[in-house]
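User: I'm putting together notes for a lab meeting next week and I want to include a structural view of one of the chains we've been expressing. I don't have a solved structure, so I'd like a prediction I can at least talk through. The sequence is below, exactly as it appears in our construct file.
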Amino acid sequence: MFVKLLLLTVLQLHILFGVPVFSEVEEVKGEVVQYSVARFSEYGFKPPDKVVYVITISLKSKKKPVFMKKNQQFLRVFSKKPIPSWVFGKSVTLQIKFSGDERGGSYWLIKIKEVK
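Assistant: Thanks for the context. Below is the predicted structure for the 116-residue chain, given as structure tokens.
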């Protein structure tokens, strides 16, 4: 009886909290259409007083990143490290990592390079 109750509790927690996604590095291509610097608090990240760098890219890759909607054309990517301002308006290749689960999350920058 105890084992059944334990399994039921674990199953309910799984449904309630979601399953973390395996963090796989993906590569996407696109044009940087927005560049900004903000506080973590603006995006609900913690600690709220840290700085986050944000770029939005218009995707040119045919393959969409994990958990991205099929009709979505723009991708917001975050970085704790400074992103150089020269990227604005440029075509770039990004290595990104998704942090979250099937209910939502964020894409984080691993590496960026300009496409010439």
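A couple of points you could mention at the meeting. Strands lie at 25-39, 51-59, 74-79, 91-101, 104-114. The chain has one helix and five strands.

User: Perfect, that's what I needed.
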